[in-house]
TrEMBL record:
Highest taxon listed in the record's lineage: Bacteria
Taxonomic lineage from the root: Bacteria, Bacillati, Actinomycetota, Actinomycetes, Kitasatosporales
Name of the protein in its database record: Penicillin acylase family protein
Compositional bias annotation for Low complexity: 240-302
InterPro entries per the UniProt record, alphabetical: Ntn_hydrolases_N, Pen/GL7ACA/AHL_acylase, Penicillin_amidase_dom1, Penicillin_amidase_N_B-knob, S45
Organism in which the protein naturally occurs: Streptomyces spongiicola
Entry similarity comment: Belongs to the peptidase S45 family.
Annotated region (Disordered), positions in chain: 225-302, 470-490
Length: 943
């Protein structure tokens, strides 16, 4: 990047590269006509005042060829970077600094699997659409280069001769792998639990991963069961007494290859309590599994519980560091990416038809992940079968979330556990499985580097998946000193780590996109969902006939008895592999439920005690979903009706559940310091809403951050704490008193700010809730410092957190508490995800925008997330919002985080962001008449 910076400065100084012409060279033509070879008839591209395109064609192939062309017009830099990510080829664009990232991505093999899907799995029709889309992209690229494509290419051209290659259909398919990676489930939790064993007992770790609070937060599906007679999910069936979530249930056949639950815990357990009994060594998958589990399961848990803070755990820390370095295209690594989507039946709406809302919570980026678009056939027929609009991914044909003329749908992350880490006993010749040494599957990859040169890597795979430990020298030492109390191979220099992940098996998810776009009813919707194998999403549905529904799709593994995916499994045990997948017909769904509405917000799908399969041990904890439930119930009580604007207002609800729990206790603390008392008074009469101008919200969130730091963060191993934060702590193997300052060692945090713990999400709400009545729990103990006395009780720790928060905000916001506001702390800066984050300062200035002062917060419905371990900066956001007025489509509303354009200084680069920040929505024209009325520019693409 230094070379780029120097060249850029030189270019600016000469005035040759960065004149108005350079900036405007890539702006798309939006009026007149352009020849597009391969079309059978003209295609019209109609753009409204926000530059949102609506495409009108006469054949399906013409429609997708035009979509590829228009996506490239608006967003090709974004598309090009994405395909280099998915192919592990970032070094070709950005140089040697990306080799390690590329090596990890090549080891995963996203692009290779996407190629298999295209060659072997996808339907001929889907391949036809993908080829047409690629042809449209390449038609745009044909006569353009450098600044003609985007400002970023002009900058890249200053230091090298990079030229974009032609787009391929596989480039589009591979994007679904990146989407699946960022929505992969509990892999970070699996790593974190293992790392915690260096400083916490098993009982303490359980306390930090409490059971889902079904008594407080409803699951998505509250009725129905797998019918014993038909073997299918029946929304009207009653669960049998023995249908609790046992992973020993038979899954569908399919590629079988062939971990105790954190569960609920006794809140009296505490850090520093000494070694616990190995009661958690029994890996129980749901209440219906056997109490003892298998010996293999016991061995796996015992071995991983024993990966103490010696060199054995440095491997998992190394893996976490590698994960932090992988571009998180959808959200921060380990932060529990979420979304809200809900649908209300017409019986409870002012329109008499369903209303459907959706706002996926993803990483803030510029441009937004989403591109709004309409894809319309002039006349729907066999040769032209689409009339659909919504949110698309640039680089991929079709509409991902939106509606057609018959149905609407929304997505949230289901959170299924679809990844497992396997410890592997490896040697030069292979890996151990039972009494055998099995050979690796081996392939070589060559990473080309911008400016010349290349690096070759060797990828090794076991039956469980790629050996990701080969990508880190630290990972080679995983399990080096792990105590083993059941039969296991000689650990030698340590175990390797392999990744089993559903997305590394070829599937049909791309087929699902087109089926969903054309579905006409719930049957067609479910047929599309059946193909949506990865990533596993909650799909919410409504149709113009007044029906509402929900489907949990996805390829979700069935694990062997004794393994629940919460900790790495022993790869040398032949019984530790997956047995198959949950059959689609047994996955939960709802159709016109009696309650009259359906809410999905990453909460539990179904009560684990009433379902025969394990979906995950690591759902979100349901704070947002329950708040949405409560808002709906409040609105419809006594015969009330919900309007489109009510749905929008619910999307921007800022209430904090943890504030509602803690604030009454904080107000009871006897505070003697007058300056801290001034801050405490801010909480009096506060309604727990986190508006941008709220001083109470600013102070409460600072107190919450310090409660987490004192009670939990400072007790976690360095591998989980934020990088650079150094503490004097007791040695990991210390048996001395908690407050013994004479035997401390200096340890500095090692975790990236986006994934450091405790992050303050709703898991931590439940951790604290369980401890509130245990006033003398050792979790509330914090050692003395030079200026603070030690704390031994809840209220003492709360008082210290209130004091620390007061002085932190004084430093950040000033001494006068009347000037404090949440929005001054909680700010969003939109950054170009490549040169805007790593480029020279002048380029970042040109490409990035902001900041915006926001309301909302962690686990609020208006989920402007922040990581309490790192600070208050916004780390993920509602990446778009939509409210679909089903049946009366032109009265639907939508908004994007940024704008339609990916071109810096274009009119539509961030023209929606101000409205988005205020919670406003744009009109969403769909019918031909409404689109025509909203059209400001028309471009004709001609054969």
């Amino acid at each position: 990047m230094l070379a780029l910076a120097l060249a850029l400065v030189a270019g600016v100084g000469c005035g040759a590269y960065w004149g108005v012409g350079t900036v405007r060279a890539s702006f798309p033509q939006t009026t007149g006509s352009i020849r597009l070879d391969g079309l059978s008839a003209p295609v019209d591209v109609k753009r409204d005042a926000n530059g949102i395109p609506q495409l009108y064609a006469s054949t399906d192939e013409d429609l997708f060829r035009a979509q590829g062309f228009v996506h490239a017009q608006d967003r090709f830099w974004e598309m090009d970077v994405r395909r280099h990510v998915t192919a592990g080829r970032l070094s070709e664009m950005f140089g040697a600094g990306q080799v390690e990232t590329d090596a990890f991505l090549r080891t995963l093999g996203w692009h290779r699997v996407a190629q298999q899907e295209f060659d072997e799995k996808l339907s001929p029709e889907t391949k036809k659409y993908l080829r047409a889309y690629a042809d449209g992209v390449n038609a745009y690229l044909a006569d353009r280069d450098g600044a003609d494509l985007s400002l970023e290419y002009a900058a890249l051209g200053l230091t090298g001769d990079y030229r974009p290659e032609k787009w391929t259909p596989v480039d589009s398919v591979a994007w679904l792998k990146a989407m699946a990676w960022d929505l992969r489930g509990n892999m970070q939790d699996e790593i974190d639990r293992s790392l915690m064993t260096s400083r916490l007992t098993e009982q303490q770790i359980k306390q930090l991963y409490p059971a889902y609070p079904y008594d407080l937060h409803q699951p998505v599906v509250t009725a129905g069961a797998v019918d014993e007679g038909s073997g299918k999910w029946d929304p009207e069936a009653e669960p049998s007494s023995d249908s609790a979530g046992s992973s020993d249930s038979a899954g569908s056949p399919g590629s079988p290859d062939s971990a105790g639950s954190p569960g609920s815990s006794d809140p009296s357990g505490s850090p520093g309590a000494g070694s616990s009994s190995q009661d958690g060594g029994t890996a129980v998958s749901g209440a219906g599994a056997s109490e003892s589990g298998s010996a293999a399961g016991q061995g796996a848990q015992t071995q991983l519980s024993g990966l103490s803070g010696l060199s054995g755990l440095s491997g998992l820390s190394g893996l976490s560091d590698v994960l932090d370095g992988i571009p998180a295209l959808l959200g921060p690594n380990g932060s529990g990416i979420g979304s809200n989507s809900w649908v209300v039946s017409g019986s409870y709406t002012t329109t008499g038809k369903p209303l459907l809302a959706n706002d996926p919570h993803l990483a803030p980026q510029l441009p937004s992940l989403w591109a709004q678009m309409g894809l319309h056939c002039r006349a729907v027929s066999d040769k032209c079968s689409f009339d659909v609009a919504g949110y698309t991914f640039s680089g991929m044909p079709g509409v991902v979330i939106g509606h057609n003329q018959d149905i609407a749908w929304g997505f949230t992350n289901l959170g299924a556990d679809v990844t497992d880490l396997y410890l592997e006993k490896v040697s030069q010749t292979g890996w151990t499985s039972g009494s055998r040494i099995k050979p690796f599957k081996v392939r070589e990859e060559t990473i080309r580097i911008a400016g010349g040169g290349s690096k070759k890597i060797t990828v090794r795979e076991t039956d469980h998946g790629p050996l990701i430990s080969d990508r880190s020298s630290e990972l080679e030492r995983v399990g080096e000193r792990a105590p083993v109390t059941t039969p296991a191979p000689d650990r030698g220099n340590g175990f390797g780590v392999a990744l089993r992940w559903t997305a590394l098996d070829p599937g049909n998810s791309m087929d699902a996109v087109f089926k969903l776009n054309r579905a006409k009813d719930f049957e067609g919707f479910r047929a599309a969902a059946k193909d949506f194998e990865v990533p596993s999403q909650n799909l919410v549905y409504a149709d113009a006939e007044g029906n509402i529904g929900y489907q949990a799709p996805g390829r979700i593994p069935v694990r062997s008895e004794g393994f629940d995916g919460s900790m790495p499994a022993p790869g040398w045990n032949p019984t530790s592999g997956w047995k198959g997948y949950i059959p689609f017909d047994e996955l939960p769904y709802e159709y016109n439920p009696k309650r009259g509405y359906i809410v999905t917000a990453n909460q539990a799908v179904v009560d684990a005690g009433k379902y025969p399969y394990l979906i995950t041990k690591d759902y979100g904890y349901g704070s947002r979903s329950q708040r949405i439930h409560d808002l709906i119930e409040l609105k419809i009580k006594d015969g009330g009706k919900i309007s489109t604007d009510d749905m929008r207002t619910m999307q921007t609800d800022n209430q904090s559940e943890i504030a509602k729990l803690l604030t009454p206790h904080l107000l009871k603390i006897d505070v003697s310091d007058p300056y801290v008392r001034e801050a405490q008074k801010l909480l009096e009469g506060w309604d727990y809403t986190q508006e941008p101008d709220s001083g109470a919200a600013a102070y409460f969130n600072a107190v919450w951050r310090h409660v987490l730091r004192l009670a939990f963060g400072n007790k976690l191993p360095k591998e989980l704490r934020i990088r650079g934060e150094c503490l004097n702590v007791r040695p990991a193997d210390s048996t001395g008193p908690v407050d013994d300052l004479n035997s401390l060692v200096r340890e500095c945090g090692q975790r990236d700010s986006d994934s450091a713990q405790p992050d303050g999400g709703d898991r931590w709400y439940e951790v604290v809730r369980a401890l509130m009545d245990v006033e003398d729990s050792e979790w509330w103990q914090a050692p003395r410092t030079r200026k603070d006395a030690a704390t031994t009780t809840r209220d003492e720790l709360f008082a210290r957190a209130m004091q620390d928060a007061r002085w932190e905000l004084t430093a950040k916001l000033g001494k006068d508490v009347g000037s404090w506001s949440w929005g001054r702390l909680h700010q969003l800066t939109l950054e170009n995800q490549t040169l805007g984050t790593k480029g020279p300062g002048i380029l970042r200035w040109m490409l990035n925008r902001g900041p915006w002062s926001l309301g909302g917060g962690e686990a609020a419905v208006n989920a402007t997330g922040w990581n309490a371990a790192a600070g208050y900066e916004v780390t993920w956001v509602p990446s778009m919002r939509m409210v679909v007025n089903v049946g009366d489509w032109d009265k639907s509303r939508w908004i994007n985080l940024t704008g339609a354009s990916g071109h810096a200084y274009g009119d539509h680069y961030t023209d929606q962001t101000d409205k988005w920040a205020k919670g406003e929505l744009l009109d969403w024209a769909f019918t031909g008449k409404a689109v025509e009325a909203a059209t400001e520019d028309t471009l004709s693409l001609r054969p």
